[in-house]
């Protein structure tokens, strides 16, 4: 489980939180899902901010990050692009643009048995439904609690994951009240320890975008 990326770990925990969700019906989950991909691309130095705080690509998408293709290609096509433009397209659009990105990440988790896909009958025909396996959810939950409770120097990616789960209203499902308090303290502390980090900058700007969308 520790070899999974921030996007994949978020996917497992967010989907496992409510098996009926595809993130498209929850603004918080949807925004945090896109944020996880942007943070991962930032951590890999695949995207960055230009002098006007717009997002640009800096290199080709790594071969092992194909599940980020949808978001990466959107940025590549539109660059330089504002963060709000990205979230508007994937989260607030009525065209369900989030689904392809959701499916690509889900598919990336199937080969190792973290996620299963089945066909579900809908009004307009069959559609793919992704379900997190119980073993994957158990491992992800234990890993999350270890990150929060076992003393160690959290990586920027671990801090970002905890933050996204809290903002997506997911964290409380998997941890005790005391552990959640510990997580919130880690989040507060990270504002100083990650002060100069590009990941910190991305998280701060996502905060502003998220507040604007949810308040509408």
Automatic annotation (TrEMBL):
**Tree of life domain:** Bacteria
Q: Which UniProt keywords apply?
A: Golgi apparatus, Lipid-binding, Membrane
Its membrane topology, per UniProt? Answer: Peripheral membrane protein
Q: Where in the cell is it found?
A: Golgi apparatus membrane
- Tell me the InterPro entries matching this sequence: GPP34-like, GPP34-like_sf
Look up the record and report any one GO term of the cellular component aspect: cytoplasm
Question: What GO molecular function terms would the record report?
Answer: phosphatidylinositol-4-phosphate binding
* Entry protein name: GPP34 family phosphoprotein
State the organism of origin.
Vagococcus allomyrinae
């Amino acid at each position: 489980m520790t070899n999974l990326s921030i996007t994949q770990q978020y996917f497992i925990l967010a989907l496992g939180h409510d098996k009926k969700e595809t993130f498209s019906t929850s603004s918080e989950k949807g925004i945090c899902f896109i944020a996880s991909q942007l943070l991962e691309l930032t951590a890999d130095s695949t995207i960055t901010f230009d002098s006007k705080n717009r997002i640009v690509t800096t290199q080709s998408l790594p071969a092992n990050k194909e599940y980020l293709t949808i978001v990466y290609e959107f940025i590549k096509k539109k660059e330089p692009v504002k963060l709000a433009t990205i979230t508007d397209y994937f989260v607030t659009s009525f065209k369900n643009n989030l689904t392809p990105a959701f499916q690509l990440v889900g598919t990336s988790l199937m080969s190792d048995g973290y996620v299963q896909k089945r066909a579900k009958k809908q009004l307009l025909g069959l559609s793919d439904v992704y379900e997190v396996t119980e073993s994957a959810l158990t491992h992800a939950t234990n890993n999350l609690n270890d990150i929060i409770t076992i003393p160690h120097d959290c990586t920027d990616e671990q801090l970002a994951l905890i933050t996204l789960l809290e903002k997506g209203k997911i964290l409380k499902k998997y941890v005790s009240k005391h552990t959640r308090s510990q997580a919130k303290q880690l989040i507060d502390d990270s504002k100083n320890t990650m002060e100069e980090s590009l990941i910190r900058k991305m998280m701060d700007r996502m905060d502003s975008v998220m507040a604007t969308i949810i308040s509408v």
